[in-house]
Amino acid sequence: MIAFDNLNQGALLALAVFWLTACTSSGPALNPPPQESTTSTAVSPPPVRADEPRTSDALVKRKQEESGRIAHEAKSATTPSAIGAMAMPHDLRYPSEPLNRENYAHFDDNPVKRAAEQPVSTFSIDVDTGAYANVRRFLNQGSLPVQDAVRVEEMINYFSYDYPLPKDKTRPFSVTTEIAPTPWNKDSVLLRVGFKGYDIAAQKLPPANLVFLVDVSGSMMSPDKLPLLKSGLKLLVQNLRAQDQVSLVVYAGNTGVVLEPTPGDQKGRILAALEGLTAGGSTNGGAGIKLAYTMAEQGYIKNGINRVLLATDGDFNVGTVSFEALKNLVEDKRKTGVSLTTLGFGTGNYNDRLMEQLADTGNGNYAYIDTLNEANKVLVNEMSSTLQTIAKDVKIQIEFNPAVVAEYRLIGYENRALKREDFNNDKIDAGDIGAGHTVTALYEVTLAGGKGQKIELLRYGQETVAAGNKDEIALLRLRYKLPDSDTSLLIEQALKTADVQRDSVKTSADFRFSAAVAAFGQLLRGGKYTGDFGYDEVARLAQGARGQDGYGYRGEFLTLVNLAKSLDGGNRQAQR
Fold it and tell me: Are residues 318 and 177 part of one domain?
């Protein structure tokens, strides 16, 4: 409407110019225009001075000057800048919601497979826990997580389980299996495979050479980023010993060494260096990674812990920013014997995809730090498993017996899948296990002859199943390398059909709780395979399986389930 008024004003001014110009011509006099035309313009003629001569030439000259002034003002009033300025309201309200640039790798749920067609399942171990803490952050901020932020295996492995310790260090972890009815599907059973690494008390860990690589770019200003980061690393510093050493490298637009390798008992120097960090500038993460590895190599401790701890929101925007280039950089640097742990912080621009993949490539682990309590969990309570690797390149392969198993699907581990031939190839990288780590994998299995099979039999292909050998449901194979070896070792263990527990009441509390977490993760991803099993059923299953909960993590899980139910309002469950 404002632009339309401006056009009317310009037209009227043009008419006034035409009238004034016509008055100066030598032709016959024109009839005076209607009264309304003479009063429509807002431009007033200049006053006539009392001493100005009223000659014909003077009047002509004055009218010519006036017509030029009116034409100039009319042109100025119709320029785009003038119209824009007039059209711009003074009370314009700008969007209050910040731009969300969080980045997550997309993946689809593992599909159901027929054992007669594809009996072998192979994947890499995963000890990351970042997805669970990130999901918690979403829920506590009042929204359901984006589905690609939910990696079910990381939610399951966030919790510790009471698996037995290995008998000796020659076999660095124990293997536990349990098979019982699936809580969300009465026609299938749930196979749980659990591992527990041998534990080392924090005070008995080998000497540690740690490099804190800290993002101090402008995007790290908010309280949930650099301030929380500094508080978290201070907790770790308080638990260092004289034989440990710490370097501090920072990066923004440029990189620099804030603290040369400093003994762990000089806590004042280390804490002062952390306290002095401030945020500002762009983010050259690639250059920071290179410098941090250089510092780690400079302070390398033979037979010790050599690790870079990268603390950032992952929003790299200058220098090396290509996802694949950054992965290649870390892959090349891991050959030096230095591992990489990634600690994610913040919201809005968080790059989960980069953080998770860099840790996997760097023979390390990934955690998301949303609270100081989470920093204490990762860097203090679980210090040994975070820092000390006891087995590397751990791979799992399960061969299902088609005489007993009709269908199966692996729950989670979508981005850890390996080819069948990768299992025996020691050149293929896989996940590592830290001291005291527990790792759990779950399969939903439909037994042969049972109801609820999801895949139709082939019309033109006859499935051939070997007769006999129905005593075994599957064969479990594991490959791993000791930390100082490049040759893998093999463990094989048959899973007996007789071990299937038909009564779910007799299952362990850990079995039921891990199943509850798996169901919750699947619900957050849309509940494609969970049937009518909803948040209420998850809460009841978890409530009866809390067991020993010294730190309250399982109790907090129940709170998150109830919160997700309220936020969902039946929307995601309705998608199933």
Answer: no
Residues 195 and 230 in one domain: no
**Considering its fold, how many domains does the chain have in total?**
3
Q: What is the DSSP string of 84-97?
A: HHHHS-TTPPPP-S
Nearest C-alpha neighbor of 330 from the set 299, 297, 293, 304: 293
**CA atoms of 521 and 204, how far apart (whole Å):** 36
Q: Between residues 459 and 298, which one has the greater pLDDT?
A: 298
d(C-alpha 304, C-alpha 204), whole Å? 12
CATH code for position 173: 2.60.40.1230
448 in a structural domain: yes
* 279 within 8 A of 216, measured Cβ to Cβ: yes
Cβ proximity of 473 and 405 under 8 Å: yes
Question: Which residue did the predictor score with more confidence, 570 or 15?
Answer: 570
Of 106, 93, 332, 346, the C-alpha closest to 215 is 346
Report the pLDDT value the prediction gives residue 34, as an integer from 0 to 100: 45
H helix runs in 362-501, sequence order? 372-376, 383-387
C-alpha to C-alpha distance for 152 and 145, rounded to whole angstroms: 13
Between 536 and 60, name the one with better pLDDT: 536
428-437, 438-447, 563-572: range with lowest mean pLDDT: 563-572
Per-residue pLDDT at 373? 97
Domain boundary among 72, 87, 102: 87
- Domain membership flag for residue 108: no
pLDDT value of residue 450: 86
What is the 3-state composition of the chain as percent helix, strand, coil, each rounded to the nearest 5? 35, 20, 40
The CA distance from 460 to 475, in Å, is: 29
Same domain, yes or no: 358 and 406: no
Burial of residue 297 (number of CB atoms within 10 Å: 0-12, 13-18, 19+) = middle
Q: Sort strands 255-263 and 245-251 into parallel, antiparallel or unpaired.
A: antiparallel
Range of the domain at 250: 203-375
